[in-house]
Amino acid sequence: MTTIREMLNRIRWSDEGGLSGYGIVIVHRGAPGNRRVIRGEDVTDIAPRAIICRDRGCVEGNRGGEGKGEGESEGEGEGWELVIPYHRVVALMKDGSVVWERGTKE
Predict the structure, then answer these.
(1) What pLDDT is stored for residue 104 in this prediction?
(2) Secondary structure class of 61 (helix, strand, coil)
(3) CA-CA to 76 of 20 to 30 Å: which in 2, 7, 98, 106?
């Protein structure tokens, strides 16, 4: 089975547009359906244990001016950065179609 990290790196480095246009579905407690979508273009790093993304529209929907939430840390000069552990990723989507889903083979 291909891991989400392998899939994200493959797309990031081999596709012409990188992760732009992709949506990364994550478990986000308190969100409608406990799910949120991270826009691929907002991913700044595919680290060994987590996805790092900037806050500007990183997670679809607005935090409503709330303070630092779970998995968030203060970044330099750009406000917040989100650190999303891979175990929270449940699916990867492109143009409304599921490209990768936890527990399925590629």
Answers:
(1) 53
(2) coil
(3) 7
